[in-house]
Amino acid sequence: MPKPTFAHYLMRRAPFARPPFFYAYVGMWLHLLIGTGLLALSAASDGLSIFAALVVGSFCVGLVLYGLLTKRYGLLINIGTYAASIARAFSTDAVVFTCFIAGLIAALVSGYSLLAGEYGRYQREVNGQAAQHPTSVVVLLGAAIVLLCAYGLYLSRAN
Q1: At 151, which helix (H) or strand (E)?
Q2: Among 7, 105, 107, 126, CA closest to 57
Q3: Is the pLDDT of residue 1 over 80?
Q4: Residue 132 CB contacts under 8 Å (≥ 6 apart), including other chains
Q5: Where are the domains of the chain?
Q6: Does the pLDDT of residue 30 top 90, yes or no?
């Protein structure tokens, strides 16, 4: 039997027993599809900005669902990020946008820690070795966080 890929490992290919990652993934996409449908039916003038906030909010829904299903309650910090993304969809205040940027940073770090932990478990269970995370991923995530911090500080100073 061939070794499962990381994606198959996360989804567990069992026909009826679905792991928490599957439910979180489906919840994220359902939230995005329903929200996009509602956005398309609305008469919003700034649809692209609202869609960006909706994407971040959907990602946070997935993280919160995963945290609840796996009892990793540290991921529930993304409830605040979800609230900031919803506020961003309805408001263009600088304070709301700065909170949205801070929430986006929290969501990025949460998503990275979740996937890095799952990848480490995958390497131990499937390959029998310790996980080696690519340095480029860590560097790119760090650069994205620094740039988002600088942008948030710029926005808070400009207004």
Answers
A1: helix 135-158
A2: 107
A3: no
A4: 123
A5: 6-158
A6: yes
97/131 Cα distance (integer angstroms)? 36
Element (H, E) at 118: helix 94-122
Q: How far apart are CA 47 and CA 19, in angstroms?
A: 34
Q: Which residues make Cβ contacts (< 8 Å) with residue 104, sequence separation at least 6?
A: 56, 81, 148
> pLDDT tens-digit profile of 126-152?
778 876 767 777 787 778 878 777 776
Distance CA 1, CA 76 (A): 37
pTM, two decimals, is: 0.79
Distances (CA, A) of 32 to 10, 65, 137: 21, 14, 26
Q: Pick from 11, 13, 32: which is nearest to 23 by CA?
A: 11
How many whole angstroms separate alpha carbon 53 and alpha carbon 86? Answer: 7
Phi, psi of 144 (to 5 degrees): -65, -40
pLDDT of residue 58: 92
pLDDT above 70 covers what percent of the chain? Answer: 89
Q: In which residue are the tokens 């990793």 written?
A: 72
